[in-house]
Structures are given as structure tokens and as C-alpha cells.
């Protein structure tokens, strides 16, 4: 069987020996196992392998052999294409038979041109899927190789989880940094407010001291003025009390008999009081007369209104009487005319 020619930029193909598969199908080892060590590291770093041909078939490649009659090959599911998409570097060089993870050359096959393209094996034998979305060639490996593949898959999942956790951790660190910065800003604002409060309190104390200093002289002056005024009032009260005592002493002393002038003065005072009483009496009478005058004026006005109303009633009565007289005269005239007409009719129409 002719060996396929290598693509430009690739290493020469390695002879592979296909092993017996399930249901008589040919199974091959996974391409990640047969890839060179430096290409596996490059794939683990970039998560893909560049295809220099971009999936195109070379013109100088030998024609494929006609497929043998058999069952229709199965299509590869989507899960198989991404099963080994995030695998870490292998533990050894698969091309080196002396390494701990190496595979003998007789069990190797050439690497696929593209990591994400799954080409069916030669002679039309397609890899079948057996349980848990694993290709058939996984079940045709030895237990160590199967465990290695599963460990790589688990390592890929673990790396993905680690990257996700690292991303979440970086986001958490960013949020924590923002929160700390916000806390620092708030602390600075609180400190500034505390300083402002301290300054305001100091200013308030200063203003209080200044107000007290200004009020003390005023209070002292007012207090002195009040004390002087109180002392003056007290002196006045004492003088009044002395005069009262003197007056009481004079009343107790026997009064001399009144003289002629004093008697005349007393008589005149009596007359003045009598005239004053007369004046008050006359004023009272004048008030009574004024009140009676108002009453009389009201009565006169009432009488005038009554007279006016009676006069109007008389005028209306005379007018009514005149109208009735005119109506009676008209009725008598009409009756007379009717009587004359009836008499004429009787004369023209004798019985």
C-alpha cells in the first residue's frame, strides 16, 4: 500500500498499523496521540492546529482507494469534534518509544491536516461511536492509553474550569478594588466632614465668647442703672412716708376755731356744690327732654306717614268711585238704547 505524501511544512508520515475494530471495522489511534510533541504543545497553547492547506486536497496526492462494500459510515457527532479541543501537553513524546508516554511506531498513524476535521479512515471504514460520545478507537486502545485520553479530557475540563474561575476571581478582585476605592473615598469624605464640623464648632465657640464679652459691659451698665433707679424710688417712698407721718401728726393736734374768712369760704363752697347739683339736675332734665323730643319726632313722622297713606287711600277711593259712576252711566245709556230698540221692534211687529 502506497504511503501518502506529506503536506508542505509537515513532517514525513509515520507508518501506522490499523488494529481490529468493532463489527469488523478498522480503528485508529486519536490524532492527538500521534501528533509530534512540539505540535501538541503548540496546539495546547493556541487550542487549535493551523491547516496549511485549509482543508483542500493536493493535486499530487494519490487517488483514494475505492471503498469496500459495507454499512454506511456514521457521521461524527458534534461532541466528538470538541472532545479533545482543550487538552494540555502530553506527558511524553509519542514518537519516542523510549519515553514514558511514547507509543510504538507500528501503532501510530500520520496526523490529520486539521484538528477540527474528522476524516474517515481508509477503505471506507468509519469510526463508530460507542457510549458516552467516545469514538470506537478509544475502546480499541489499551487501558493505559484510554486512561491517558480520559485524563487529558479531564485535564482540559479542569483547565477550562480554572480559566473560568480565574476570570471570576479577576472580576471579584476588580470589584473588591472598586469597593475599597469607594470605601476610601467615603472615608476621605467623612474625614473632610469631621474637619468641617470641628471648624464650625470652633467658630461657634469663638462667637459665643465674643458675644459674652460684648454682653458683660452692657449687663454691668444696665445693672448699675437699675440699682440707681431703685435707690431713687426708695428715697421717694421714704419721703412720702415722712410726709404722711407729718400729716397724721398735724391731724392729731387740736385744730383752732375757724375764722370769718374760713366761714365765708365754707359757705361759698356749699353754694358751688349746690349750683353744681342744680346743673347736674338740669342736664338730666335736658337729657329727658331730648329723649322725649326724639320720641315726639318719631310719633309725628308716624302720624305723617299714616296721613299720607290715608290720603292716598282716599284718592284711590275717589278714583274708584268716579270709575264706577262712569261705568254706571254707560250701563244706563246702554240699557236705554236697548229699551228703545226693543220698543221700536214691538211697534214694527204688532201682535
Q: Which structural traits does this protein have?
A:
mainly alpha, two-stranded antiparallel ribbon, coiled coil, 351 residues
**Biggest sheet architecture:** 2 strands, antiparallel
Topology as H/E string? EEHHHHHH
Count of distinct strands: 2
Distance between the termini: 176 Å
**Strands in their spatial order, largest beta sheet:** 1-2
Q: Structural class, from secondary structure content?
A: mainly alpha
Mean pLDDT across every amino acid position: 68
In one word, what is the shape?
A: flat
Rounded to an integer in angstroms, the radius of gyration calculated over CA atoms is 72 Å
Determine the number of helices (DSSP H or I, runs of at least 4 residues).
Answer: 6
**What percentage of amino acids are in beta strands?**
under 5%
User: Uncertain runs with pLDDT below 50, 5 residues or more?
Assistant: 10-58, 73-103, 108-133
Helix share, percent: 55-70%
Amino acid at each position: 500500500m502506497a504511503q501518502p505524501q506529506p503536506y508542505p511544512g509537515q513532517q514525513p508520515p509515520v507508518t501506522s498499523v490499523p488494529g481490529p475494530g468493532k463489527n469488523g471495522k478498522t480503528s485508529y489511534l486519536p490524532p492527538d496521540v500521534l501528533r509530534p510533541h512540539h505540535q501538541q504543545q503548540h496546539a495546547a497553547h493556541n487550542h487549535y492546529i493551523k491547516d496549511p492547506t485549509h482543508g483542500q486536497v493536493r493535486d499530487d496526492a494519490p487517488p483514494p482507494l475505492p471503498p469496500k462494500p459495507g454499512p454506511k459510515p456514521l457521521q461524527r457527532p458534534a461532541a466528538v469534534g470538541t472532545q479533545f479541543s482543550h487538552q494540555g501537553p502530553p506527558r511524553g513524546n509519542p514518537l519516542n518509544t523510549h519515553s514514558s508516554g511514547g507509543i510504538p511506531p507500528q501503532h501510530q498513524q500520520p496526523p490529520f491536516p486539521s484538528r477540527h476535521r474528522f476524516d474517515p479512515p481508509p477503505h471506507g471504514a468509519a469510526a463508530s461511536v460507542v457510549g458516552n460520545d467516545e469514538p470506537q478507537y478509544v475502546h480499541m486502545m489499551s487501558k493505559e492509553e484510554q486512561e491517558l485520553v480520559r485524563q487529558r479530557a479531564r485535564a482540559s475540563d479542569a483547565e477550562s474550569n480554572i480559566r473560568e474561575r480565574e476570570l471570576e476571581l479577576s472580576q471579584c478582585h476588580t470589584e473588591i478594588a472598586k469597593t475599597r476605592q469607594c470605601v476610601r473615598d467615603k472615608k476621605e469624605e467623612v474625614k473632610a466632614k469631621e474637619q468641617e464640623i470641628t471648624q464650625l464648632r470652633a467658630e461657634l465657640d469663638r462667637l459665643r465668647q465674643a458675644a459674652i464679652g460684648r454682653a458683660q459691659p452692657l449687663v454691668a451698665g444696665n445693672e448699675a442703672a437699675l440699682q440707681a433707679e431703685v435707690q431713687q424710688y426708695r428715697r421717694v417712698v421714704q419721703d412720702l412716708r415722712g410726709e404722711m407721718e407729718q400729716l397724721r401728726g398735724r391731724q392729731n393736734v387740736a385744730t383752732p376755731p375757724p375764722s370769718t374768712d374760713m366761714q365765708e369760704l365754707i359757705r361759698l363752697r356749699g353754694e358751688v356744690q349746690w349750683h353744681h347739683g342744680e346743673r347736674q339736675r338740669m342736664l338730666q332734665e335736658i337729657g329727658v327732654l331730648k329723649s322725649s323730643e326724639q320720641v315726639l319726632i318719631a310719633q309725628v313722622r308716624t302720624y305723617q306717614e299714616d296721613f299720607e297713606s290715608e290720603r292716598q287711600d282716599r284718592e284711590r277711593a275717589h278714583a274708584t268711585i268716579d270709575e264706577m259712576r262712569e261705568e254706571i252711566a254707560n250701563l244706563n245709556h246702554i240699557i236705554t238704547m236697548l229699551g228703545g230698540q226693543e220698543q221700536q221692534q214691538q211697534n214694527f211687529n204688532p201682535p
